[in-house]
Design a protein that fits this description.
The chain has 191 residues and is of the alpha+beta class. Helices cover 23% and strands 34% of the residues. The chain folds into 2 domains: 1-37; 39-180, tt1808, chain A.
Length: 191
Amino acid sequence: MASNPISKLTEEQYLALDRAAEFKSEFLDGEMFAMAGASRSHDRLQQNLAFELRGALRGSGCEVLSSDIRIKVSGRTYFYADVSVASERMAEVHDDNLTNPVAIFEVSSPATQRFDRDLKFQRYQSIESLKDYVLVRQGQVHIEHFTRVADGRWRFRDLRGQDQELKIDSIGVAIPLRRIYERVNIPPPTD
């Protein structure tokens, strides 16, 4: 979320404004937040993820969706994920809102990292179909992967380094981190 919120809106007001707007906005508890533009690193990570997922899921019955698809979390919450995956057989899109993603991927910058990991993830957890939530950090090769297990709790995997692999069993995908971070400028660590 970037910028200052507009005064409290109804769900219908938000949807009408967002559909007519030139730029996307997210909706949280009656407030509409304009989304900030993405950096080159963010854009490259998002594209690399979508490309790898599309290749891995070709012919699988899953659909990879871009950040242009609005996700309805509840009547009080709508987000635009950087990348999401839904089963083609189960994909529910009502009035241009995806309601049942299986996996959601967010590319986090230092400015959005806390929001993406805390409040956004908390809200996403209310989506019954969601099995995996993946945070891809900019500025370092680091992925946080949350998987919903059978009892409803979330298992956490912390992946760091080019030699690691992001394995998502719910959609049958394994992607080396080096491919996700391909051609992304990662500054050397500072001591």
